[in-house]
């Protein structure tokens, strides 16, 4: 064979060999192997992130519940102000009745002050 013909056949062989190597390197099973390798390396870190996020979510839910409960308690206190005013009025009335009863028991009228006690 002559030199140019030999070069042409050599080029064909190298081209076919290069194409075969390229096909083997990019074969789907190789791609799946690389994907599996990537998942195996990154999965533990992703699992840790997931566990951290779940823990933070639980803590957040607890904090939200606490805040909602506190807001409810404050709202109930505000709503109770009517009752506190009523109790205050009743206490003032009871003190007045007590003073009146003490004054009556000592023989004084409620309008005149009791005599000073000598101590």
Describe it.
The structure is a single chain. The chain has 119 residues and is an all-alpha fold. 84% of the residues lie in helices and 0% in strands. It has 3 helices and no strands. It is rod-shaped and about 150 Å long. The model has no long low-confidence stretch (mean pLDDT 86). Keywords: Lysosome, Membrane. Belongs to the BORCS8 family.
Share in helix: over 70%
Strand portion: under 5%
Query: Distance N terminus to C terminus?
Result: 145 Å
**Low-pLDDT segments, ≥5 res:** none
Strand count, sense and closure of the main sheet?
none
Run of helices and strands: HHH
By secondary-structure content and strand pairing, the structural class works out as: mainly alpha
Q: Can I get a quick summary?
A:
Helix content is 84%, strand content 0%.
Task: Give keywords.
rod-shaped
List the helices and strands and how they pair.
Layout: H1 3-25, H2 28-79, H3 81-105
